[in-house]
Amino acid sequence: MTKLAVIPVSILLIANAMLSSNSMAAIWTVNNSQDLQHQLTQAGSGDTIILNAGRYQGNFEISKALIIKGQNGAVIDAKGLGSAIKVSANDVIIEGLRIESWGDDLYERDAGILVMDHSSNIKIMHNNLQGDGFGIRADHSQQLSIGYNQIHGNPQLHVLDRGDGIHLNRVQQAMVDFNRIEHVRDGVYIESSKGSLVTNNHFYHQQYGIHYMYSEHDEAYGNHSENVSGGYAVMSSKFVYLHHNRAENATEYGVLLNITNGARIEFNVLRNVHNPQGQEALGNQGRAMFIYGALDNEIRGNEFALSDIGIAMAMGGEKNRIYENNFINNLTQVKYVGDELLQWSQQGRGNYWSSYMGWDHTQDGIGEQSYQPNDSMDKLFWRYPEAKFLMNSPVVSLLRWVESQMTIFTATGIKDDFPLMQPTQINQAVELTTSASELVYEH
Q1: Cα–Cα distances in Å, from 68 out to 97, 102, 106, 118, 119?
Q2: Res 14: pLDDT
Q3: What's the pLDDT score for residue 206?
């Protein structure tokens, strides 16, 4: 009899628990700022708050696990002060809102959405943000998913006075995908973080598309930076995998490797990097890639094309593996003013050089004659730019011709013993992911 009595009690407890759990997840609809403030305080964890069309003025804080959804026409207006939304809880979803007019105090971290310290499992999806400060900022948090948002900064501000589109500081395992970001400082800024994945985003009219600083074990692919100062900056970081991205119409560089090691830079297309104000004497020409004090990185399968300089390297950037890249019609293919002779090939495969004039008698796809992209006259003019007026003189032309006929290379500079006769084929995933991200914004 005792055993029979226990069974229905157990079933009753389970049923009560299920009913109790279901009863906790309620859906609330709000129509004005007062309703929203009230429900943010009164709603239970796991509840959903739906904002009907209208303007919700003020600063709002999400301090428990909630789902916040905006109907078409729902606008959060911070009236130019502070952050529009602060998130100080775990397991929060913010979706479908238009957020505008938050503050511009970068020191106070004013943002459209500010994720506070120690928050985790935050999803910010399909929102439209427009304001002066940070678009989305997170500090000391983890497991963020930021996708399909449009973030617009203020083009009237100087680029360095704007906030970043997405700013992640000490954030672990962030996923940033399919966002369109323009007129901000940096599109995605990642500092002292680990394990981020940034994919299929579009960046326009800003300083850098993606900017890594003191970060490690990050990956970015399928991103498109256009009309920017720099496409992708990897600074003081480790083990960053940057692949299948595109940067074009930049003024400073397509990719910067600055005091970084263990990075893999592969199959990126970096074109039309040109500084209209650049001067060779000042060293500020556009560079498809700039390597500065970066060691033990692999640079393979990239296209450096139609730029002032294909690759510029300085201050200890010698110890990198550079091969199977395409150098196509850059005004200067390589600029290296250093004291070492560097071999840019690996296991019998070098790079493709549009300026290479050698032959492939064995028909194995490798030129018979080694290639050196810069002669001694180039390096002389780099060191003494005031003598550049002599560059087109008959004497200099004769010296260049004589040197080109000799097989003895100078003791310093870049040398490719296995130049490729045909360009490396770059995976079309770059084109496909770019097209996919454009489709997101057609509506």
Answers
A1: 9, 18, 25, 20, 16
A2: 36
A3: 98
